[in-house]
Specification:
The complex is a heterodimer.
Chain A lengths: L8 E5 L4 E6 L7 E8 L6 E6 L4 E2 L4 E4 L5 E6 L8 E9 L12 E6 L1
Parallel strand pairs in A: 1-9
Antiparallel strand pairs in A: 2-7, 3-4, 3-8, 5-6, 6-7, 8-9
Chain B lengths: L4 E3 L2 E4 L5 E6 L6 E8 L3 E9 L2 E4 L8 E7 L2 E6 L8 E8 L8 E2 L3 E5 L1
Parallel strand pairs in B: 2-11
Antiparallel strand pairs in B: 1-3, 3-8, 4-5, 4-9, 5-6, 7-8, 9-10, 9-11
Classes of the chains: A mainly beta, B mainly beta.
Chain lengths: ~110, ~110
């Protein structure tokens, strides 16, 4: 299973942008980069995913390095509700299709 | 769709008792995943199914754990006999088998074995 590396924790102030990094140097050609987050006392929820190109949705943006060995989740304006653990996951579509979670990054947002 | 539904939400049981956790995936989803979350070990994938067939159960910790998916709308995770170290939050998730789609998680079952 391809591995990802994330910082244990990050902090941000409300309404500021947040850049959450993820390294995945052993990524394979069939791996999609997925991001999930887990709010306190809830199950993980999907945030965004991509393969090669940068992606935007209503929740966040995903910037993928040209060599695909790293990616960055961008929250454009952090809110208190964005305080959560953010997981970067490689999902090998068409092969195992498993979702293997790492330790994630705990994001704290201050008012 | 109501999303992935897990029951019960909370379960307290005595050591040695049998525990059954239940999951109803989203209709039409091909994959069903069972996870366990603890402070020490984080989110661990226990087993997953594709079209009701178990694909990978390498994460199941011991023979005391078993999982079944008798049909596309129901799965169970059973622990027999239960032990205090099984105390954790157990999550079920489902997803379609389409490239690039996401998984949807239930609210989890918090299991306490005393």
């Amino acid at each position: 299973d391809a591995k990802t590396t994330q910082p244990n924790s990050m902090e941000s102030n409300e309404e500021e942008p947040v850049h959450l990094p993820c390294n995945h140097s052993t990524i394979s050609g069939t791996d999609y980069i997925h991001w999930y987050r887990q709010l306190p006392s809830q199950g993980p929820e999907y945030v965004i995913h991509g393969l090669t190109s940068n992606v935007n949705n209503r929740m966040a943006s995903l910037a993928i390095a040209e060599d695909r060995k790293s990616s960055t989740l961008i929250l454009h304006r952090a809110t208190l509700r964005d305080a959560a653990v953010y997981y970067c996951i490689l999902r090998d579509w068409g092969n195992t299709d498993k979702l293997i979670f790492g330790t994630g990054t705990r994001l704290q947002v201050f008012p | 769709d109501a999303g992935v539904i897990q029951s019960p939400r909370h379960e307290v049981t005595e050591m040695g008792q049998e525990v059954t956790l239940r999951c109803k995936p989203i209709s039409g989803h091909d994959y069903l995943f069972w996870y366990r979350q603890t402070m020490m070990r984080g989110l661990e994938l226990l087993i997953y199914f594709n079209n009701n067939v178990p694909i990978d159960d390498s994460g199941m910790p011991e023979d005391r754990f078993s999982a079944k998916m008798p049909n596309a709308s129901f799965s169970t995770l059973k622990i027999q006999p239960s032990e205090p170290r099984d105390s954790a939050v157990y999550f079920c998730a489902s997803s379609p088998r389409r490239r690039g789609t996401e998984a949807f998680f239930g609210q989890g079952t918090r299991l306490t074995v005393v």
